[in-house]
Amino acid sequence: MTEFVRTEIRGRIGFITLTRPKALNALSHDMIRAMASALGAWRDDPRVLGVVLQGEGVKGLCAGGDIRYFHEVVSAGRTDIMDFFTDEYTLNYTIATYPKPYIALMDGVVMGGGMGISQGAALRIVTEATRMAMPETAIGLFPDVGGGSFLANLAGHLGEYLGTTGIVFGAVDACEIGLADAVVPRASLPALCELLANGEWQDGDAVLNAARMFAREALLPAGLAPGKFAPLRDVIDSYFGLSDMPAILKALKREARCEYSGWAEETEHLLRSKRSPLMVCVTLEQVRRARKLSLADELREEWLMMRSVFNLDGRTGAESVEGIRALVVDKDHAPRWQHADIESVKPADVARFFDGDRFGADNPLRQLGQSGPVERRSCG
């Protein structure tokens, strides 16, 4: 269906392999459609008892959506970019509600859209090479692909912290905070795939149990980096639970003279100098609102938010076009954001991202989840 997705049935398992390693397996629209087509075909195929997602190449499963494509389309004045998000968010929901075990091998770089095709999995396996993040605020976006839901469902205020900062973390942290289920050595992933492909399974539960057993019995990878969040959980909660971003930054500034001075200084600098002021504030609100929403409702809301990001509702500037230009296209790393700093962002600037009708006639996801499978997972 596309040169960048290989789908095959081996034994009783359907394998989806992303084959665009030179671009870190970044998702194109055709790749999203190919994944959706395979999952649709296998849903009622009695030959297939489970699905395995993996990425080709040593760099990672998937670095996210094809942001160069976003820049090209919006810069050209095209509005069909929203078709991309319609199909991507529908795929995210399909994965989260899939009736057969869907196992994500989250090796290497797994960010943005890569998280969207992994977090709804029945089993999420990471390795010593896993580098995970939702880094969208760096390019003038927000954590979409259901990111509001799986970040909101984390303990305390980790969701606000991870969403606004886009900080990168590894396998130990992913398992400890609930964004992964098991750590397996990268070198053992082919053996896991062979086990699943060659087994004589009676049903999907047997497939899932075998994968879980393999992960439990696997030796921890050599060189596994220790987690960094555990000793910071209380301080993260105390600051990222404050009322708004200016209050958070003010508290971080005070903390720079105290016990966690290094972390506080680094976090404040990151938020002030490396992230879109507007989208940091929007993300904070998004994660907090998502705690009261189902995954389907959150995806509907994200679709409306994305339309505003790309100025397709005529009310906001294309913040992401500038962010992608600065970091990926021209690579001058000097984005000209709409706001000079976080303190300049007004409540009304944030509120307009959330005032659309999730069930309105212009939202193509309005029927999502209205009938059919119950959401199995929106995070760990």
UniProtKB/TrEMBL annotation:
Tagged with keyword Hydrolase: yes
InterPro entries noted in UniProt: ClpP/crotonase-like_dom_sf, ECH_dom, HIBYL-CoA-H
Biological process, per Gene Ontology: L-valine catabolic process
Gene3D superfamilies recorded: 2-enoyl-CoA Hydratase, Chain A, domain 1
Annotated Enoyl-CoA hydratase/isomerase domain residues: 13-354
Keywords for this protein: Hydrolase
GO molecular function, one term: 3-hydroxyisobutyryl-CoA hydrolase activity
Domain of life, per lineage: Bacteria
UniProt-recorded name of the protein: 3-hydroxyisobutyryl-CoA hydrolase
Organism: Pandoraea communis
Lineage: Bacteria, Pseudomonadati, Pseudomonadota, Betaproteobacteria, Burkholderiales
